[in-house]
Amino acid sequence: MEAGHQSYQAGDIVYVIYRNPHTYNVANVQEAAVVKHPEQPGQLALFLYETYFPLDEDIAVYSSMAEAEMAYEESFGSTHEEGLEW
Fold first, then answer.
1. What confidence tier does 81 reach under pLDDT thresholds 50, 70, 90?
2. What pLDDT was estimated at residue 80?
3. Collapsing DSSP states into helix, strand and coil, what is residue 76?
4. Local structure of 67: helix, strand or coil
5. How far is residue 78's CA from residue 10's CA, in Å, rounded to a whole number?
6. What is the spatial distance between Cα 14 and Cα 4, in angstroms, rounded to a whole number?
């Protein structure tokens, strides 16, 4: 999670930097939902692309798109390439 380890609740909308699993050199900022994990009672998960991901310190989670885009640019460079957004 992002610095400060904000406490999330089911229903929150957050932003993550997601790498395409088929083309590893492609990454972008994606909106994700915080949900109750369907297979682990009492646990929260991120729901992204019809898949549940663990909500843990291994995934950088941002509370705003602007914050996620700043982190993306620090890690990967500009989100704009030849006038087009990623």
1. low
2. 55
3. helix
4. helix
5. 31
6. 15
